């Protein structure tokens, strides 16, 4: 099948890089679109041999599976723009945090009788083929859609927690005398190895931790510092904060009128210059409730 | 890490049959870098849970450390730091010119080991290394430093072995304590983190198994991205944090709690404790209180071991360290 990406930013770039490395789809069957050609990821996408276009409609025409890889507040604009171009064959996969299947379906039902919509939450390590993805189809789900916000907080945002930790671990190594490059390398390798042990093992993380802690040794001394500082609690807080913010974004999207202040005029102009796009279809009129959500209820 | 022509033809022995020996044997055999019939492990204690695992993998297990020495060319010292002096006294007479001694004991210096072995041989070949438990899944992090009598080829041989189970590089011996704090103890920090992340996921509604899976996968993927990227970890973090999004909200909470500082503290604490252990080993007389009488008895029952050889006299300074060193900074 052909795969398209509405949006040519970090997520589209990471997925295309992963897919092509995995050989799961040929580069010439991939299209990505964005009105903004200045994104640093655009040149990366072009280098990988995919079709890049400034026309979202063209991406829709060329694709069977269509990933919506734009920020959550852009989704309504995009759906209005490509709605008329969706055919029966299209499978719409939204990767936008907090955007519900039902909100997307509601929009597309204005154009087609039975739009096929899936929602997924993935993360950037797809770029090295070690992503974590969950999806929901609405009718039958790999994960109940209710859980996707929690997944966002855990594995969606998770890599950022890891990068922060790795930066700090390297700082610790450098403080104790290691050169920076070696410290970064060792920290990342230690984290990778530990994660792999956990994934390959039946044992509880606590048991694996115990196995590393020799009596009176260096590691248990270090762990005491982590516990004293509430290390665990900070991570629980982080997952919770990310999940709560995701639900807030969803709520804002469901309830509020989307103001044109959320999108740059220059970007909107670029969209309007694409063949087939009219200003009425992109709903630039102020104060239009883009989700037409009279029966909108926050999940 | 191609398996085709990196098979080590030597025999490898482990003094000690605990977590570290088990992890290394599991990794080496999975990597195919050495045939299991060329591996021997010994411990006077046959009740260790890891002993069963070692036997199952086809390694030869014995209660006699001397037997391990006789059967091996590369000899890993995989016992706890305070046991090293006992072991060196026990096997010292059996070391031959061919032997390459690789100590994995945290905080034990090359010079302390060489000093002991110089009582038995003029030029003992000693390497000190610091590895970590993910060697068991072939994703270890290992550094090593070579002693004065070890040749370049000996270092290369160790790199071949340890490189088959993860990352391995040579460093100055001075840095090994810091490495202990970072990648030696590092897996424990990660296990703690995944346990906590999973708690967070469960709090927000995820089933436990899925939460552990996603947490571990997210860490693995992020670490892999960093290893394969030229970019700074801060840049990679920035790339994940969309404006006003979920991630930056989470990061703020972490920063507010001093998350980074806790990790720096941890690396420092582990490194400092390692240096303390080294200092204790260098300076103090090793008391027989550090070893169980039943264990000592088992050792003494092995062929060739004598009470004099094992240095059980109370108060005996087992490192014979008249030129005792000052604590390293």
Automatic annotation (TrEMBL), chain A:
Gene Ontology CC terms, in alphabetical order: mitochondrion
**Cleavable signal peptide:** none
Q: Which InterPro entries match?
A: 6-PGluconate_DH-like_C_sf, NAD(P)-bd_dom_sf, P5C_Rdtase_cat_N, P5CR-like_CS, P5CR_dimer, Pyrroline-COOH_reductase
* Enzyme type, top EC level: oxidoreductase
Catalytic reaction annotation? L-proline + NADP(+) = (S)-1-pyrroline-5-carboxylate + NADPH + 2 H(+); L-proline + NAD(+) = (S)-1-pyrroline-5-carboxylate + NADH + 2 H(+)
| Molecular function terms from GO | pyrroline-5-carboxylate reductase activity
Question: Which stretches make up the Pyrroline-5-carboxylate reductase catalytic N-terminal domain?
Answer: 3-98
State which Enzyme Commission number(s) the record gives.
1.5.1.2
Q: Where is the Pyrroline-5-carboxylate reductase dimerisation domain?
A: 145-249
SUPFAM superfamilies per record: 6-phosphogluconate dehydrogenase C-terminal domain-like, NAD(P)-binding Rossmann-fold domains
Where it mainly occurs, coarsely classed, is mitochondrion
> What are the binding positions for NADPH in this chain?
56
Residue positions annotated to bind NADP(+) are: 6-11, 34, 69-72, 95-97
Q: In which pathway does it act?
A: Amino-acid biosynthesis; L-proline biosynthesis; L-proline from L-glutamate 5-semialdehyde: step 1/1
Q: Where does it localize?
A: Mitochondrion
| Family classification | Belongs to the pyrroline-5-carboxylate reductase family.
Q: Which named protein is this?
A: pyrroline-5-carboxylate reductase
Automatic annotation (TrEMBL), chain B:
What does the sequence similarity comment in the record state about its family? Belongs to the pyrroline-5-carboxylate reductase family.
Q: What is this protein called?
A: Pyrroline-5-carboxylate reductase
Q: Which UniProt keywords apply?
A: Acetylation, Amino-acid biosynthesis, Mitochondrion, NADP, Oxidoreductase, Phosphoprotein, Proline biosynthesis
Primary location group = mitochondrion
Q: In Gene Ontology terms, what is one molecular function of this protein?
A: pyrroline-5-carboxylate reductase activity
Q: Which Pfam families match?
A: F420_oxidored, P5CR_dimer
What pathway is this protein said to act in by its record?
Amino-acid biosynthesis; L-proline biosynthesis; L-proline from L-glutamate 5-semialdehyde: step 1/1
A GO cellular-component term linked to this record: mitochondrion
Where does the Pyrroline-5-carboxylate reductase catalytic N-terminal domain lie? 12-107
Checking HAMAP family in the record gives: P5C_reductase (MF_01925)
InterPro entries in alphabetical order = 6-PGluconate_DH-like_C_sf (IPR008927), NAD(P)-bd_dom_sf (IPR036291), P5C_Rdtase_cat_N (IPR028939), P5CR-like_CS (IPR053790), P5CR_dimer (IPR029036), Pyrroline-COOH_reductase (IPR000304)
Q: Does this entry carry the keyword Transport?
A: no
E.C. code: 1.5.1.2
Please indicate if the UniProt record lists S-adenosyl-L-methionine as a keyword.
Answer: no
Record localization:
Mitochondrion
Catalytic activity reads: L-proline + NADP(+) = (S)-1-pyrroline-5-carboxylate + NADPH + 2 H(+); L-proline + NAD(+) = (S)-1-pyrroline-5-carboxylate + NADH + 2 H(+)
Question: What processes in GO biological process is this protein linked to?
Answer: cellular response to oxidative stress; L-proline biosynthetic process
Domain Pyrroline-5-carboxylate reductase dimerisation, first and last residues per copy: 173-277
Organism placement in taxonomy: Eukaryota, Metazoa, Chordata, Craniata, Vertebrata
